[in-house]
Amino acid sequence: MHKREELEIIVTTNAATIKQCQKVINKAKDELEALDRVTYAIGDRFKDADGRKYMLSKQAQIGTHVSMTNLTTGGLWSGNNSVANLERITADEFTSICAGTTFTRYWDIRKGELTPEKPDDEDDDDDDI
User: Fold this and answer.
1) Is residue 129 in a domain?
2) pLDDT class for 123, splitting at 50, 70, 90?
3) Number of domains in the chain
4) What string of DSSP letters covers 52-76?
5) pTM of the complete model
6) What does the pLDDT look like over 87-109, one tens digit per residue?
7) Does 125 map to a domain?
8) Do 79 and 99 belong to one domain?
9) Do 52 and 101 fall within a single domain?
10) Mean per-residue pLDDT over the chain, rounded
């Protein structure tokens, strides 16, 4: 084997390896971006504008139907809404569940912590839908 052939094999092999590495890097970037998106999960708790408390809850034993359940009365705020993933409910899915009412999350079930309350003059809508 000549030197030129050896170098061409090395270049071809390294180029393929670099392409594979780039695919892995791109996938990791996509997963990181997905983690930064605001999502909700069953068990998250919310308050409405009047201070009533609700929990995002699953409504059927099978499937992915959810609604907001009033923690005082047990009544459902909205009918059964189907979501793609009970642990990663998107902002669009949550808007549909809320049916035009603004809810503010005060308990994040995945983090296991209360959401810090913001002063009224702060304008950060990350958890308001």
Assistant:
1) no
2) very low
3) 2
4) -EEEEEE--SSS-EEEEEETTT--B
5) 0.63
6) 999 999 999 999 889 999 999 99
7) no
8) yes
9) yes
10) 83
